[in-house]
Write a structure and sequence with these properties.
heterodimer; A: 295 residues; mainly alpha; MetI-like fold; 2 domains; 13 helices; globular; B: 324 residues; two-stranded antiparallel sheet; 71% helix
Chain lengths: 295, 324
Protein backbone atom coordinates (compact mmCIF):
# COMPACT_ATOMS: atom_id res chain seq x y z
CA UNK A 1 0.00 0.00 0.00
CA UNK A 2 2.77 2.42 0.89
CA UNK A 3 4.10 3.01 -2.62
CA UNK A 4 0.70 2.96 -4.22
CA UNK A 5 -0.65 5.15 -1.47
CA UNK A 6 1.95 7.86 -1.97
CA UNK A 7 1.47 8.14 -5.69
CA UNK A 8 -2.24 8.31 -5.14
CA UNK A 9 -1.85 10.96 -2.53
CA UNK A 10 0.19 13.12 -4.88
CA UNK A 11 -2.54 13.13 -7.43
CA UNK A 12 -5.46 13.61 -5.12
CA UNK A 13 -5.79 13.89 -1.37
CA UNK A 14 -7.09 10.81 0.41
CA UNK A 15 -10.84 10.71 0.43
CA UNK A 16 -12.52 11.69 3.60
CA UNK A 17 -14.09 8.98 5.69
CA UNK A 18 -16.64 6.89 3.88
CA UNK A 19 -16.34 8.64 0.56
CA UNK A 20 -15.00 7.19 -2.63
CA UNK A 21 -13.22 9.01 -5.39
CA UNK A 22 -15.42 8.81 -8.44
CA UNK A 23 -14.43 9.63 -11.98
CA UNK A 24 -15.88 12.85 -13.31
CA UNK A 25 -18.48 11.67 -15.86
CA UNK A 26 -19.82 9.21 -13.31
CA UNK A 27 -19.95 11.84 -10.63
CA UNK A 28 -21.83 14.21 -12.90
CA UNK A 29 -24.31 11.47 -13.74
CA UNK A 30 -24.68 10.68 -10.05
CA UNK A 31 -25.26 14.34 -9.24
CA UNK A 32 -27.81 14.69 -12.01
CA UNK A 33 -29.75 11.68 -10.79
CA UNK A 34 -29.55 12.91 -7.18
CA UNK A 35 -31.04 16.23 -8.24
CA UNK A 36 -33.73 14.43 -10.22
CA UNK A 37 -34.62 12.31 -7.18
CA UNK A 38 -34.66 15.43 -5.02
CA UNK A 39 -37.12 17.08 -7.41
CA UNK A 40 -39.38 14.00 -7.45
CA UNK A 41 -39.28 13.70 -3.66
CA UNK A 42 -39.98 17.38 -3.13
CA UNK A 43 -42.70 17.52 -5.78
CA UNK A 44 -45.64 16.42 -3.59
CA UNK A 45 -44.81 19.13 -1.05
CA UNK A 46 -44.45 21.70 -3.82
CA UNK A 47 -47.77 20.64 -5.29
CA UNK A 48 -49.42 20.89 -1.89
CA UNK A 49 -48.27 24.47 -1.31
CA UNK A 50 -48.99 25.41 -4.91
CA UNK A 51 -52.53 24.05 -4.80
CA UNK A 52 -53.13 25.86 -1.52
CA UNK A 53 -52.33 29.16 -3.23
CA UNK A 54 -54.20 28.48 -6.45
CA UNK A 55 -57.54 30.19 -6.92
CA UNK A 56 -60.53 27.85 -6.66
CA UNK A 57 -61.04 27.54 -10.41
CA UNK A 58 -57.49 26.39 -11.01
CA UNK A 59 -57.34 23.71 -8.29
CA UNK A 60 -60.40 21.87 -9.54
CA UNK A 61 -59.26 22.08 -13.12
CA UNK A 62 -58.73 19.15 -15.44
CA UNK A 63 -55.91 21.15 -16.96
CA UNK A 64 -53.55 21.15 -13.95
CA UNK A 65 -50.51 23.34 -14.45
CA UNK A 66 -47.38 23.31 -12.26
CA UNK A 67 -47.57 27.06 -11.63
CA UNK A 68 -50.13 29.73 -10.95
CA UNK A 69 -50.22 33.28 -12.25
CA UNK A 70 -52.78 34.55 -9.79
CA UNK A 71 -51.97 33.27 -6.31
CA UNK A 72 -54.76 33.77 -3.82
CA UNK A 73 -55.30 33.28 -0.13
CA UNK A 74 -58.91 32.18 -0.55
CA UNK A 75 -58.27 28.59 0.45
CA UNK A 76 -56.40 29.66 3.57
CA UNK A 77 -59.20 32.05 4.41
CA UNK A 78 -61.73 29.24 4.12
CA UNK A 79 -59.57 27.12 6.38
CA UNK A 80 -59.09 29.73 9.09
CA UNK A 81 -62.56 31.21 9.08
CA UNK A 82 -65.04 28.45 8.49
CA UNK A 83 -63.56 25.65 10.48
CA UNK A 84 -62.46 27.23 13.74
CA UNK A 85 -59.01 26.22 12.63
CA UNK A 86 -57.16 28.44 15.08
CA UNK A 87 -58.71 26.56 17.96
CA UNK A 88 -57.69 23.21 16.49
CA UNK A 89 -54.21 24.52 15.84
CA UNK A 90 -53.83 25.65 19.45
CA UNK A 91 -55.18 22.32 20.70
CA UNK A 92 -52.66 20.43 18.57
CA UNK A 93 -49.88 22.68 19.77
CA UNK A 94 -50.91 22.26 23.39
CA UNK A 95 -51.10 18.48 23.16
CA UNK A 96 -47.80 18.14 21.29
CA UNK A 97 -46.06 20.68 23.54
CA UNK A 98 -47.13 18.97 26.73
CA UNK A 99 -46.10 15.56 25.46
CA UNK A 100 -42.71 16.84 24.27
CA UNK A 101 -41.81 18.52 27.58
CA UNK A 102 -43.16 15.77 29.82
CA UNK A 103 -41.66 12.90 27.86
CA UNK A 104 -38.29 14.67 27.62
CA UNK A 105 -38.10 15.12 31.40
CA UNK A 106 -39.35 11.64 32.27
CA UNK A 107 -37.19 9.99 29.62
CA UNK A 108 -34.12 11.93 30.80
CA UNK A 109 -34.53 10.59 34.33
CA UNK A 110 -35.16 7.05 33.10
CA UNK A 111 -32.23 7.12 30.67
CA UNK A 112 -29.95 8.34 33.44
CA UNK A 113 -31.09 5.49 35.66
CA UNK A 114 -30.39 2.79 33.09
CA UNK A 115 -27.03 4.14 31.91
CA UNK A 116 -25.47 5.50 35.10
CA UNK A 117 -26.42 2.80 37.54
CA UNK A 118 -26.10 -0.93 37.68
CA UNK A 119 -28.99 -2.57 39.45
CA UNK A 120 -31.08 -5.68 39.41
CA UNK A 121 -33.50 -6.01 36.47
CA UNK A 122 -31.63 -3.32 34.55
CA UNK A 123 -31.29 -5.46 31.41
CA UNK A 124 -34.85 -6.72 31.76
CA UNK A 125 -36.07 -3.13 31.89
CA UNK A 126 -34.07 -2.19 28.82
CA UNK A 127 -35.50 -5.09 26.88
CA UNK A 128 -38.95 -4.03 28.01
CA UNK A 129 -38.36 -0.50 26.75
CA UNK A 130 -37.35 -2.03 23.43
CA UNK A 131 -40.35 -4.34 23.27
CA UNK A 132 -42.68 -1.50 24.24
CA UNK A 133 -41.69 0.35 21.07
CA UNK A 134 -43.10 -2.46 18.99
CA UNK A 135 -46.55 -2.43 20.53
CA UNK A 136 -49.07 -1.49 17.85
CA UNK A 137 -50.61 1.70 19.17
CA UNK A 138 -53.70 1.22 17.03
CA UNK A 139 -54.52 -2.13 18.58
CA UNK A 140 -54.60 -0.51 22.01
CA UNK A 141 -57.16 2.05 20.91
CA UNK A 142 -59.93 -0.29 22.06
CA UNK A 143 -58.87 -0.72 25.71
CA UNK A 144 -57.67 2.89 25.87
CA UNK A 145 -61.08 4.04 24.73
CA UNK A 146 -62.71 2.25 27.66
CA UNK A 147 -60.01 3.45 30.05
CA UNK A 148 -60.60 7.07 29.00
CA UNK A 149 -64.33 6.59 29.25
CA UNK A 150 -64.11 5.14 32.76
CA UNK A 151 -61.99 8.07 33.93
CA UNK A 152 -64.21 10.62 32.22
CA UNK A 153 -61.39 11.69 29.94
CA UNK A 154 -63.22 11.28 26.63
CA UNK A 155 -63.56 14.55 24.74
CA UNK A 156 -60.69 16.12 26.66
CA UNK A 157 -57.19 16.94 25.53
CA UNK A 158 -55.93 14.72 28.35
CA UNK A 159 -57.15 11.69 26.43
CA UNK A 160 -54.71 12.65 23.68
CA UNK A 161 -51.81 13.71 25.89
CA UNK A 162 -51.61 10.67 28.17
CA UNK A 163 -51.50 7.88 25.56
CA UNK A 164 -48.99 9.77 23.44
CA UNK A 165 -46.82 10.31 26.46
CA UNK A 166 -46.82 6.58 27.10
CA UNK A 167 -46.13 5.68 23.49
CA UNK A 168 -43.29 8.13 22.96
CA UNK A 169 -41.47 7.30 26.21
CA UNK A 170 -39.87 3.95 25.29
CA UNK A 171 -38.25 5.29 22.13
CA UNK A 172 -37.18 8.49 23.90
CA UNK A 173 -35.48 6.50 26.67
CA UNK A 174 -33.83 4.22 24.14
CA UNK A 175 -32.49 7.13 22.11
CA UNK A 176 -31.40 9.27 25.06
CA UNK A 177 -29.35 6.39 26.43
CA UNK A 178 -26.66 7.10 23.84
CA UNK A 179 -26.48 10.78 24.79
CA UNK A 180 -26.27 10.15 28.53
CA UNK A 181 -23.64 7.48 27.97
CA UNK A 182 -21.53 9.95 26.00
CA UNK A 183 -21.04 12.16 29.06
CA UNK A 184 -17.78 10.98 30.64
CA UNK A 185 -17.89 9.25 34.01
CA UNK A 186 -14.97 11.36 35.16
CA UNK A 187 -17.24 14.39 35.16
CA UNK A 188 -19.54 12.76 37.66
CA UNK A 189 -16.64 11.77 39.87
CA UNK A 190 -15.24 15.28 39.72
CA UNK A 191 -18.60 16.78 40.64
CA UNK A 192 -18.89 14.30 43.48
CA UNK A 193 -15.46 15.17 44.81
CA UNK A 194 -16.32 18.86 44.60
CA UNK A 195 -19.23 18.12 46.87
CA UNK A 196 -22.14 18.30 44.45
CA UNK A 197 -25.09 16.19 45.42
CA UNK A 198 -26.55 13.66 43.04
CA UNK A 199 -29.56 15.85 42.34
CA UNK A 200 -27.38 18.82 41.68
CA UNK A 201 -25.20 16.84 39.30
CA UNK A 202 -28.30 15.57 37.54
CA UNK A 203 -29.91 18.93 36.83
CA UNK A 204 -27.01 21.37 36.72
CA UNK A 205 -24.37 19.29 34.95
CA UNK A 206 -25.87 16.31 33.20
CA UNK A 207 -29.07 17.97 31.98
CA UNK A 208 -27.41 20.83 30.06
CA UNK A 209 -24.94 18.38 28.52
CA UNK A 210 -27.65 16.02 27.35
CA UNK A 211 -29.91 18.84 26.18
CA UNK A 212 -29.01 18.56 22.47
CA UNK A 213 -29.99 14.92 22.67
CA UNK A 214 -33.25 15.87 24.32
CA UNK A 215 -34.02 18.15 21.41
CA UNK A 216 -33.31 15.38 18.88
CA UNK A 217 -35.46 12.97 20.84
CA UNK A 218 -38.28 15.44 21.17
CA UNK A 219 -38.61 15.61 17.39
CA UNK A 220 -39.95 12.12 17.41
CA UNK A 221 -42.43 12.63 20.21
CA UNK A 222 -43.50 15.90 18.64
CA UNK A 223 -44.09 14.34 15.26
CA UNK A 224 -45.92 11.27 16.47
CA UNK A 225 -48.18 13.43 18.62
CA UNK A 226 -48.71 16.18 16.07
CA UNK A 227 -49.48 13.62 13.37
CA UNK A 228 -51.90 11.67 15.48
CA UNK A 229 -55.10 11.01 13.70
CA UNK A 230 -56.46 7.87 15.28
CA UNK A 231 -56.77 9.01 18.90
CA UNK A 232 -58.17 12.37 17.88
CA UNK A 233 -60.76 10.57 15.78
CA UNK A 234 -61.63 8.01 18.44
CA UNK A 235 -61.44 9.85 21.77
CA UNK A 236 -62.86 13.24 20.76
CA UNK A 237 -66.28 12.09 19.72
CA UNK A 238 -68.70 14.88 20.46
CA UNK A 239 -66.93 17.98 21.77
CA UNK A 240 -65.65 19.64 18.60
CA UNK A 241 -63.89 22.40 20.54
CA UNK A 242 -61.39 19.79 21.75
CA UNK A 243 -60.55 18.59 18.25
CA UNK A 244 -57.06 18.74 16.82
CA UNK A 245 -55.82 19.59 13.34
CA UNK A 246 -56.34 16.28 11.51
CA UNK A 247 -60.04 16.42 12.21
CA UNK A 248 -60.23 19.94 10.84
CA UNK A 249 -58.60 18.71 7.69
CA UNK A 250 -61.04 15.87 7.18
CA UNK A 251 -63.94 18.34 7.24
CA UNK A 252 -63.02 19.32 3.69
CA UNK A 253 -63.54 15.78 2.44
CA UNK A 254 -67.11 15.72 1.29
CA UNK A 255 -68.97 12.76 -0.12
CA UNK A 256 -69.99 14.50 -3.32
CA UNK A 257 -67.04 16.77 -4.12
CA UNK A 258 -63.84 17.22 -2.11
CA UNK A 259 -62.73 20.80 -1.52
CA UNK A 260 -59.15 20.20 -2.66
CA UNK A 261 -58.10 23.82 -2.24
CA UNK A 262 -59.18 23.72 1.38
CA UNK A 263 -57.58 20.33 1.96
CA UNK A 264 -54.27 21.48 0.53
CA UNK A 265 -54.30 24.74 2.50
CA UNK A 266 -55.10 22.88 5.73
CA UNK A 267 -52.39 20.32 4.95
CA UNK A 268 -49.89 23.13 4.38
CA UNK A 269 -50.73 24.73 7.71
CA UNK A 270 -50.40 21.37 9.43
CA UNK A 271 -47.11 20.42 7.77
CA UNK A 272 -45.36 23.74 8.28
CA UNK A 273 -44.62 23.53 12.05
CA UNK A 274 -43.16 20.03 11.71
CA UNK A 275 -41.05 21.11 8.77
CA UNK A 276 -39.67 24.10 10.68
CA UNK A 277 -38.96 21.96 13.73
CA UNK A 278 -37.23 19.37 11.56
CA UNK A 279 -35.01 21.80 9.72
CA UNK A 280 -34.00 23.45 13.00
CA UNK A 281 -32.85 20.22 14.60
CA UNK A 282 -31.79 18.18 11.57
CA UNK A 283 -28.09 18.16 12.45
CA UNK A 284 -28.70 16.91 15.95
CA UNK A 285 -31.22 14.48 14.60
CA UNK A 286 -28.73 12.79 12.30
CA UNK A 287 -26.03 12.54 14.95
CA UNK A 288 -28.60 11.42 17.50
CA UNK A 289 -29.82 8.66 15.25
CA UNK A 290 -26.25 7.61 14.67
CA UNK A 291 -25.79 7.37 18.42
CA UNK A 292 -29.01 5.51 19.01
CA UNK A 293 -28.31 3.07 16.24
CA UNK A 294 -24.63 2.46 16.71
CA UNK A 295 -24.07 2.02 20.42
CA UNK B 1 -1.01 -0.86 6.47
CA UNK B 2 0.10 -2.73 3.38
CA UNK B 3 -2.00 -5.72 4.29
CA UNK B 4 -5.26 -3.80 4.44
CA UNK B 5 -6.38 -4.35 0.85
CA UNK B 6 -5.64 -8.06 1.04
CA UNK B 7 -7.48 -8.38 4.30
CA UNK B 8 -10.62 -6.63 3.17
CA UNK B 9 -10.86 -8.94 0.24
CA UNK B 10 -9.92 -12.21 1.80
CA UNK B 11 -11.30 -11.94 5.30
CA UNK B 12 -14.84 -13.05 6.02
CA UNK B 13 -17.26 -10.39 7.27
CA UNK B 14 -16.75 -11.41 10.86
CA UNK B 15 -13.15 -10.24 10.76
CA UNK B 16 -14.41 -6.66 10.56
CA UNK B 17 -15.74 -6.77 14.06
CA UNK B 18 -12.87 -5.37 16.07
CA UNK B 19 -12.79 -2.41 13.70
CA UNK B 20 -16.20 -1.19 14.81
CA UNK B 21 -14.89 -0.53 18.30
CA UNK B 22 -17.41 -2.55 20.20
CA UNK B 23 -14.81 -3.91 22.57
CA UNK B 24 -13.98 -0.70 24.43
CA UNK B 25 -17.64 0.30 24.50
CA UNK B 26 -18.41 -2.75 26.55
CA UNK B 27 -16.14 -1.60 29.32
CA UNK B 28 -17.24 2.02 29.23
CA UNK B 29 -20.97 1.36 29.27
CA UNK B 30 -21.92 1.09 32.90
CA UNK B 31 -21.12 3.34 35.78
CA UNK B 32 -18.59 2.04 38.25
CA UNK B 33 -20.66 2.77 41.32
CA UNK B 34 -22.52 -0.38 42.06
CA UNK B 35 -24.17 0.54 45.35
CA UNK B 36 -26.93 2.44 43.63
CA UNK B 37 -29.60 1.70 46.21
CA UNK B 38 -32.96 3.16 45.46
CA UNK B 39 -31.81 6.09 43.36
CA UNK B 40 -32.24 4.46 39.93
CA UNK B 41 -35.74 3.33 40.85
CA UNK B 42 -36.56 6.85 41.96
CA UNK B 43 -35.44 8.14 38.57
CA UNK B 44 -37.37 5.41 36.82
CA UNK B 45 -40.56 5.85 38.81
CA UNK B 46 -42.35 8.43 36.61
CA UNK B 47 -41.64 6.47 33.44
CA UNK B 48 -42.71 3.18 34.98
CA UNK B 49 -45.93 4.64 36.37
CA UNK B 50 -46.92 6.11 33.00
CA UNK B 51 -46.03 2.94 31.12
CA UNK B 52 -47.80 0.67 33.57
CA UNK B 53 -50.99 2.70 33.50
CA UNK B 54 -51.17 3.49 29.80
CA UNK B 55 -49.32 0.64 28.14
CA UNK B 56 -49.24 -2.47 30.32
CA UNK B 57 -52.74 -2.14 31.70
CA UNK B 58 -54.30 -1.54 28.25
CA UNK B 59 -52.43 -4.57 26.91
CA UNK B 60 -53.89 -6.65 29.73
CA UNK B 61 -57.32 -5.17 28.98
CA UNK B 62 -56.92 -5.93 25.29
CA UNK B 63 -56.23 -9.57 26.08
CA UNK B 64 -59.15 -9.67 28.50
CA UNK B 65 -61.66 -8.13 26.08
CA UNK B 66 -60.62 -10.61 23.40
CA UNK B 67 -61.90 -13.41 25.66
CA UNK B 68 -65.22 -11.71 26.46
CA UNK B 69 -68.35 -11.04 24.57
CA UNK B 70 -68.16 -7.29 24.20
CA UNK B 71 -70.50 -5.54 21.79
CA UNK B 72 -72.62 -2.41 21.90
CA UNK B 73 -74.98 -4.00 24.45
CA UNK B 74 -72.17 -4.61 26.95
CA UNK B 75 -70.57 -1.24 26.37
CA UNK B 76 -73.74 0.65 27.18
CA UNK B 77 -74.29 -1.57 30.21
CA UNK B 78 -77.46 -3.17 28.87
CA UNK B 79 -76.14 -6.68 29.17
CA UNK B 80 -73.50 -8.20 31.43
CA UNK B 81 -70.26 -9.26 29.83
CA UNK B 82 -69.84 -12.97 29.43
CA UNK B 83 -66.71 -15.04 29.16
CA UNK B 84 -66.31 -16.55 25.72
CA UNK B 85 -63.08 -18.46 26.14
CA UNK B 86 -61.49 -18.81 22.74
CA UNK B 87 -64.83 -18.20 21.04
CA UNK B 88 -63.80 -14.88 19.51
CA UNK B 89 -60.62 -16.40 18.15
CA UNK B 90 -62.60 -19.30 16.70
CA UNK B 91 -64.93 -16.85 14.96
CA UNK B 92 -61.96 -14.87 13.71
CA UNK B 93 -59.96 -17.83 12.40
CA UNK B 94 -63.09 -19.25 10.79
CA UNK B 95 -63.64 -16.05 8.83
CA UNK B 96 -62.04 -16.19 5.37
CA UNK B 97 -61.82 -12.40 5.36
CA UNK B 98 -59.41 -12.49 8.31
CA UNK B 99 -56.99 -14.72 6.43
CA UNK B 100 -57.31 -12.58 3.34
CA UNK B 101 -56.56 -9.43 5.36
CA UNK B 102 -53.66 -11.13 7.14
CA UNK B 103 -52.19 -12.19 3.81
CA UNK B 104 -52.64 -8.71 2.37
CA UNK B 105 -50.99 -7.17 5.45
CA UNK B 106 -47.95 -9.43 5.24
CA UNK B 107 -47.52 -8.96 1.48
CA UNK B 108 -48.08 -5.22 1.66
CA UNK B 109 -45.66 -4.78 4.57
CA UNK B 110 -43.05 -6.94 2.82
CA UNK B 111 -43.35 -4.93 -0.39
CA UNK B 112 -43.05 -1.66 1.57
CA UNK B 113 -40.01 -2.86 3.54
CA UNK B 114 -38.14 -4.16 0.49
CA UNK B 115 -38.83 -1.04 -1.58
CA UNK B 116 -38.01 1.33 1.28
CA UNK B 117 -34.72 -0.42 2.05
CA UNK B 118 -33.70 -0.66 -1.61
CA UNK B 119 -34.44 3.01 -2.28
CA UNK B 120 -32.95 4.18 1.03
CA UNK B 121 -29.69 2.22 0.65
CA UNK B 122 -29.26 3.13 -3.02
CA UNK B 123 -29.71 6.83 -2.25
CA UNK B 124 -27.38 6.60 0.78
CA UNK B 125 -24.64 5.23 -1.48
CA UNK B 126 -25.47 7.89 -4.06
CA UNK B 127 -25.08 10.58 -1.38
CA UNK B 128 -21.48 9.52 -0.78
CA UNK B 129 -20.60 9.99 -4.46
CA UNK B 130 -21.68 13.56 -4.97
CA UNK B 131 -20.56 17.04 -3.99
CA UNK B 132 -22.03 19.08 -1.19
CA UNK B 133 -24.64 21.04 -3.09
CA UNK B 134 -26.62 18.23 -4.74
CA UNK B 135 -26.23 16.29 -1.50
CA UNK B 136 -27.83 19.12 0.43
CA UNK B 137 -30.67 19.29 -2.11
CA UNK B 138 -31.41 15.58 -1.79
CA UNK B 139 -31.08 15.70 2.02
CA UNK B 140 -33.47 18.63 2.28
CA UNK B 141 -36.05 17.03 -0.01
CA UNK B 142 -35.84 13.81 2.00
CA UNK B 143 -36.17 15.64 5.31
CA UNK B 144 -39.25 17.37 3.93
CA UNK B 145 -40.83 14.03 3.05
CA UNK B 146 -39.81 12.63 6.43
CA UNK B 147 -41.33 15.52 8.34
CA UNK B 148 -44.64 15.45 6.50
CA UNK B 149 -47.40 14.11 8.77
CA UNK B 150 -48.88 10.83 7.57
CA UNK B 151 -52.30 12.38 7.17
CA UNK B 152 -51.21 15.34 5.04
CA UNK B 153 -48.90 13.09 3.03
CA UNK B 154 -51.87 10.84 2.35
CA UNK B 155 -54.14 13.67 1.25
CA UNK B 156 -51.47 15.15 -1.02
CA UNK B 157 -50.71 11.81 -2.70
CA UNK B 158 -54.38 11.11 -3.25
CA UNK B 159 -54.69 14.53 -4.85
CA UNK B 160 -51.59 13.97 -7.01
CA UNK B 161 -53.15 10.78 -8.36
CA UNK B 162 -56.68 12.15 -8.58
CA UNK B 163 -58.34 10.94 -11.78
CA UNK B 164 -59.82 14.37 -12.56
CA UNK B 165 -57.49 17.01 -11.18
CA UNK B 166 -54.21 15.19 -10.48
CA UNK B 167 -51.06 16.00 -12.43
CA UNK B 168 -49.78 12.41 -12.44
CA UNK B 169 -52.46 10.94 -14.66
CA UNK B 170 -52.02 13.84 -17.04
CA UNK B 171 -48.28 13.37 -17.09
CA UNK B 172 -48.54 9.65 -17.70
CA UNK B 173 -51.44 10.01 -20.11
CA UNK B 174 -53.67 7.75 -18.05
CA UNK B 175 -56.83 9.75 -18.62
CA UNK B 176 -59.32 9.33 -15.81
CA UNK B 177 -57.87 6.06 -14.51
CA UNK B 178 -58.90 5.76 -10.86
CA UNK B 179 -56.04 4.50 -8.70
CA UNK B 180 -58.22 3.78 -5.70
CA UNK B 181 -60.77 1.70 -7.61
CA UNK B 182 -58.69 -1.40 -8.26
CA UNK B 183 -57.29 -3.40 -5.36
CA UNK B 184 -53.69 -3.57 -6.53
CA UNK B 185 -53.47 -0.05 -7.90
CA UNK B 186 -54.81 1.25 -4.58
CA UNK B 187 -52.22 -0.76 -2.65
CA UNK B 188 -49.56 0.50 -5.08
CA UNK B 189 -50.58 4.08 -4.43
CA UNK B 190 -50.40 3.62 -0.66
CA UNK B 191 -47.06 1.85 -1.07
CA UNK B 192 -45.66 4.84 -2.97
CA UNK B 193 -46.72 7.18 -0.18
CA UNK B 194 -45.32 4.91 2.54
CA UNK B 195 -41.99 4.56 0.73
CA UNK B 196 -41.89 8.32 0.13
CA UNK B 197 -42.21 9.14 3.81
CA UNK B 198 -40.12 6.28 5.23
CA UNK B 199 -37.09 6.01 2.93
CA UNK B 200 -35.48 9.17 4.42
CA UNK B 201 -34.96 7.43 7.77
CA UNK B 202 -33.17 4.55 6.05
CA UNK B 203 -31.19 6.87 3.81
CA UNK B 204 -29.98 9.17 6.58
CA UNK B 205 -29.11 6.34 8.95
CA UNK B 206 -27.26 4.24 6.36
CA UNK B 207 -25.49 7.35 5.05
CA UNK B 208 -24.28 8.13 8.58
CA UNK B 209 -23.10 4.53 8.81
CA UNK B 210 -21.19 4.69 5.53
CA UNK B 211 -19.51 7.93 6.59
CA UNK B 212 -18.23 6.12 9.66
CA UNK B 213 -16.37 3.55 7.55
CA UNK B 214 -12.71 4.56 7.30
CA UNK B 215 -11.96 5.90 3.83
CA UNK B 216 -8.79 3.80 3.58
CA UNK B 217 -10.77 0.57 3.57
CA UNK B 218 -12.87 1.61 0.60
CA UNK B 219 -9.85 3.11 -1.13
CA UNK B 220 -7.99 -0.15 -0.68
CA UNK B 221 -10.84 -2.19 -2.07
CA UNK B 222 -11.15 -0.01 -5.14
CA UNK B 223 -7.37 -0.07 -5.67
CA UNK B 224 -7.60 -3.83 -5.67
CA UNK B 225 -9.99 -3.49 -8.56
CA UNK B 226 -13.23 -4.36 -6.80
CA UNK B 227 -16.31 -3.20 -8.66
CA UNK B 228 -18.81 -0.84 -7.04
CA UNK B 229 -21.25 -3.66 -6.46
CA UNK B 230 -18.49 -5.85 -5.03
CA UNK B 231 -17.41 -3.08 -2.66
CA UNK B 232 -20.99 -2.68 -1.44
CA UNK B 233 -21.53 -6.42 -1.07
CA UNK B 234 -18.22 -7.48 0.41
CA UNK B 235 -17.00 -4.43 2.31
CA UNK B 236 -19.75 -1.95 3.10
CA UNK B 237 -22.69 -4.27 3.74
CA UNK B 238 -20.83 -6.42 6.31
CA UNK B 239 -19.57 -3.33 8.13
CA UNK B 240 -23.03 -1.79 8.06
CA UNK B 241 -24.69 -4.97 9.26
CA UNK B 242 -25.72 -3.67 12.70
CA UNK B 243 -27.26 -0.55 11.17
CA UNK B 244 -28.96 -2.51 8.42
CA UNK B 245 -30.54 -4.81 10.99
CA UNK B 246 -31.90 -1.84 12.93
CA UNK B 247 -33.42 -0.14 9.90
CA UNK B 248 -34.85 -3.40 8.58
CA UNK B 249 -36.56 -4.28 11.85
CA UNK B 250 -37.81 -0.72 12.32
CA UNK B 251 -39.21 -0.75 8.78
CA UNK B 252 -40.94 -4.08 9.34
CA UNK B 253 -42.55 -2.78 12.50
CA UNK B 254 -43.62 0.53 10.97
CA UNK B 255 -44.91 -0.91 7.72
CA UNK B 256 -46.77 -3.71 9.44
CA UNK B 257 -48.65 -1.09 11.45
CA UNK B 258 -49.57 1.29 8.63
CA UNK B 259 -52.91 2.79 9.54
CA UNK B 260 -53.40 6.43 8.59
CA UNK B 261 -52.33 6.02 4.97
CA UNK B 262 -54.68 3.11 4.29
CA UNK B 263 -57.49 4.74 6.23
CA UNK B 264 -57.27 8.10 4.51
CA UNK B 265 -56.16 7.11 1.01
CA UNK B 266 -58.54 4.22 0.46
CA UNK B 267 -61.40 5.70 2.47
CA UNK B 268 -61.29 3.31 5.45
CA UNK B 269 -60.13 0.13 3.72
CA UNK B 270 -61.09 0.41 0.09
CA UNK B 271 -64.16 -0.66 -1.84
CA UNK B 272 -65.77 -3.61 -0.01
CA UNK B 273 -62.74 -3.77 2.28
CA UNK B 274 -60.39 -4.78 -0.51
CA UNK B 275 -57.52 -2.71 0.92
CA UNK B 276 -57.91 -3.62 4.57
CA UNK B 277 -54.80 -4.38 6.60
CA UNK B 278 -54.95 -5.87 10.10
CA UNK B 279 -54.74 -2.54 11.88
CA UNK B 280 -57.59 -0.93 9.96
CA UNK B 281 -59.55 -4.18 10.08
CA UNK B 282 -59.34 -4.27 13.88
CA UNK B 283 -60.41 -0.64 14.09
CA UNK B 284 -63.35 -1.13 11.76
CA UNK B 285 -64.50 -4.24 13.61
CA UNK B 286 -64.38 -2.42 16.93
CA UNK B 287 -65.55 1.10 16.22
CA UNK B 288 -67.58 0.76 13.03
CA UNK B 289 -69.27 -2.60 13.72
CA UNK B 290 -69.13 -2.39 17.55
CA UNK B 291 -67.52 -5.85 17.64
CA UNK B 292 -65.06 -4.77 20.30
CA UNK B 293 -64.04 -8.29 21.27
CA UNK B 294 -63.29 -9.28 17.67
CA UNK B 295 -61.27 -6.10 17.22
CA UNK B 296 -59.38 -6.90 20.40
CA UNK B 297 -58.68 -10.43 19.18
CA UNK B 298 -57.21 -9.03 15.95
CA UNK B 299 -55.15 -6.65 18.09
CA UNK B 300 -53.79 -9.59 20.08
CA UNK B 301 -52.82 -11.39 16.85
CA UNK B 302 -50.94 -8.29 15.70
CA UNK B 303 -49.27 -7.91 19.06
CA UNK B 304 -48.03 -11.52 18.93
CA UNK B 305 -46.69 -11.15 15.38
CA UNK B 306 -44.80 -7.97 16.28
CA UNK B 307 -43.53 -9.59 19.46
CA UNK B 308 -42.08 -12.41 17.35
CA UNK B 309 -40.33 -9.85 15.12
CA UNK B 310 -38.94 -8.15 18.21
CA UNK B 311 -37.60 -11.41 19.61
CA UNK B 312 -35.79 -12.08 16.33
CA UNK B 313 -34.34 -8.57 16.60
CA UNK B 314 -33.14 -9.18 20.17
CA UNK B 315 -31.55 -12.47 19.13
CA UNK B 316 -29.73 -10.81 16.25
CA UNK B 317 -28.51 -8.04 18.54
CA UNK B 318 -27.33 -10.50 21.13
CA UNK B 319 -25.54 -12.63 18.57
CA UNK B 320 -23.59 -9.57 17.57
CA UNK B 321 -22.44 -9.25 21.14
CA UNK B 322 -24.31 -6.00 21.55
CA UNK B 323 -24.29 -4.63 25.07
CA UNK B 324 -27.56 -3.32 26.34
Amino acid sequence: MSTLGTTERVRSPLPRAGRLRVRRPWRLAAEASALLVAVVVAFPLYWMVLSAFKPAGEVQSTDARPWTLSPSLDSFRRVFEQQDFGRYFLNSLLVAGTVVVASALIAFLAATAVTRFRFKFRTTLLIMFLVAQMVPVEALTIPLFFLMRDFGQLNTLGSLILPHLAFSLPFAVWMLRGFVKAVPEALEEAACIDGASRTRFLWQILFPLVFPGLVATSVFSFISTWNDFLFAKTFIISDISQSTLPMALLVFFKPDENDWGGIMAASTVMTLPVLVFFVLVQRRLVSGLGGAVKD
Amino acid sequence: MSSVPLKTRAAPPRAQRPATGRQPARRRGVAPRSRAGWTPWLYLAPALVVLAALLLYPIYQLGLISFLEYTQAQVSGGEPTSFQGLGNYATLFGDPQFWQVLGATVCFAAACVVTTLAVGCALAVLLTRIRALPRLALMMAALGAWATPAITGSTVWVFLFDPDYGPVNRLLGLGDFSWTYGRYSAFALVLLEVVWCSFPFVMVTVYAGIRAIPGEVLEAASLDGASQWRIWRSVMAPMLRPILIVVTIQSIIWDFKVFTQIYVMTGGGGIAGQNLVLNVYAYQQAFASSQYSLGAAIGVVMLLILLAVTLVYLRLMRRQGEEL
